[in-house]
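chain below, 227 aa
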Amino acid sequence: MRTPDFACTAPDRLAEGDLRFLIENMPQGGGSYEEVARLLATMPSTIESMLTSDYVYALIRDRRNLLLSISPFLLFGVLLRRSLDAPRSPVERRVINYLANLLALFVRAERVYRVDDDADPQVYVVELLQGLAAAEPRHQFVTYAHIGNYALWLTGLQAAWLEHRHRYGRRPVDARYYESQGRAYFDRAAHHSLAKEFGLDDVFLRLAMMFHHYRAGLERMRRDEMP
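prediction:
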């Protein structure tokens, strides 16, 4: 069964250019890029330390021209670790990697409205739910996940727009509605039979239980790091 593009919870999605950026900007060199890259492949905890380090954050904050040479996954991975505090447990690291990958996918506007990378775009949650009870399991799972993903992205990074639309556009739903939907559908995704197969059951359960925490972290990232 094809793995959904959002099912990434490890830093191994870092591109070669990302690793080169991390290694070549280390405060103290430890050998050639090739030697260090081979070593890092066997030491994921070292990569985690680099992603939470002050030197990498300073490079991204103070040398904006370097953003052209790194991937959105690395950019969001570093910024999320600041906005949500350094992850302490394995599941916390997995959630942050998941969110960094999700935000990297949602850089492409059309992906925001697709439950899967090859699905037709659908803007409204009610459209996504039509016929879902009779859908095949994979489509059910990616739809549950997408509603959670979309709700978190919308309430975390688009909160001001959402409030303006609700207040002045007279739209009936506000951030509380989407937060409720996000918690509910992350919980459904966590308990779906495919969640464990794709290694996402603990990630989705944590996002369901701590939705507001992660939403607030995204809001801080938007305010402090993406003015």
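The two ends are 40 Å apart (CA to CA). The chain has a mean pLDDT of 86.
thats it, cya
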